[in-house]
Amino acid sequence: MTTTIDQLFNVADFVTEEEREWQLRAREFAQTKINPIIDEAFEDRRLPVELLPAVGEFGAFGMYMEGYGLRGASSVAYGLVAMEFEAADSGFRTALSVQGSLAMGAIYKFGSEEQKQQWLPAMGRGEAIGFFGLTEPQGGSDPNTMLTSARRDGDQWVLNGKKRWIGLATIAQVGVIWAKDEEGVVRGFVVPTETEGFKATAIENKLSMRASLQTEIELTDVRLPADAILPGAKGLSAPFKCLNEARYGIAWGVMGAARSCLEAAVERSQTREVFGAPIGSKQIIQAQLADMFVEYEKGMLLALHLGRLKDAGQLTYGQISVGKLNNVREAIKIAGNCRSILGGDGITSDFPVMRHMANLESVRTYEGTDEVHQLVIGRELTGIAAF
């Protein structure tokens, strides 16, 4: 299972035995379960939902959380798992993130003990699938424009509104919906999908993240009991804390996509011949490979640094923005350069590179665009908000 990339920069030199074991198990899962079906799933615009219970059995959903049958692994271990899943496909890593970091994370961070006991064990096992309903059609990067409303009616809450680009909602049993109460305060609600008035529709016309599942949600007089509210969540800071968990996983995950592209380019440079010699014997190709590897290694070291800060309880949202901005941006550059090394064949499904290129454009957009993260970092540097 050792790759050429591992030989030059082996992350095993910097992680614990337990973290490395999580990585190798995730790599085996990705290579034996995801890779054999992912190209067909991408072509068919289908998330391989049949693998989700196996991810639960593997223990990756909410794996860095304590209690409720969850594994209590380190944040670095989770990052390594995210990286190996995304080396197979960004869409499948996204499912891991939506379930574990967003849906489970919201209940874990802000839910009542009853809500945690009811949902987290089943979600951790992959027996219940969850979603995280924040983004709205008109909102995009500005969730403060939220139109979804929650009003009290006796001993019930009544929700109305729309959400868009919500992962997993058409197959989920439960989700966390964010809505503004009658005082204009953003609150979170645990919403079973069987509730009357809830409707989720898959977004079908994607040219990226095709082996993933994003949806639109319509809420029409959805009635919930008073205890459906997340008691610990009040204001936009609550969903943002969940998004930071997902952004952290992205910083690791995209390095998996970059590694997959690099491995394909290195192998092709050794076997494809032009002008009587392998293209890897040409100085310009070696320089390109070297430059890409340097950016990959820097991205890995950044992700590892963020993971250690997170496990120490010292990671800030500004630092997370550095990781998300840099690593996604560099992964996209690496994928594009690898595609060019593969020549015309690089646009075919004989190699994973074009699929990674398409997926990474979505990863660049969700959980904060480049521009949003630039402004977060700029605010940290200057003390002035330029949003």
What can you see in these coordinates?
This is Acyl-CoA dehydrogenase. Residues 132-222 form the Acyl-CoA oxidase/dehydrogenase middle domain. The chain starts with a helix and ends in a 5-residue tail after the last helix. Strands 2-3-7-6 form a 4-stranded antiparallel β-sheet, with helices on one face. A 3-stranded mixed β-sheet has the order 1-4-5. It has helices at residues 4-8, 17-43, 52-58, 75-88, 90-110, 113-124, 237-271, 283-311, 317-341, 353-365, 370-382; strands at residues 130-133, 149-153, 156-167, 174-180, 186-192, 198-202, 214-225, 273-274, 277-278. Helix 5 runs antiparallel to helix 7 (237-271) and helix 7 runs antiparallel to helix 10. It is of the alpha+beta class and 387 residues long.
> Unreliable stretches, pLDDT < 50, 5 or more residues?
none
Number of helices: 11
Rounded radius of gyration (Å): 21 Å
Strand content: 5-15%
Query: Biggest sheet, open or closed, and with what strands and sense?
Result: 4 strands, antiparallel
> Which secondary-structure class do the elements indicate?
alpha+beta
Number of strands: 9
CATH topology of the largest domain: Butyryl-CoA Dehydrogenase, subunit A, domain 3
Q: How many separate structural domains?
A: 3
CATH architecture of the largest domain, by name, is Up-down Bundle
- CATH superfamily annotation of the largest domain: Butyryl-CoA Dehydrogenase, subunit A, domain 3
- For this structure, what is the CATH class of the largest domain? Mainly Alpha
What would the average pLDDT be, to the nearest integer? 95
Q: Strand-and-helix sequence, N→C?
A: HHHHHHEEEEEEEHEEHHHH
Shape: globular
Binned, the helix content reads: 40-55%
Biggest sheet strand line-up: 2-3-7-6
Distance between the termini: 45 Å
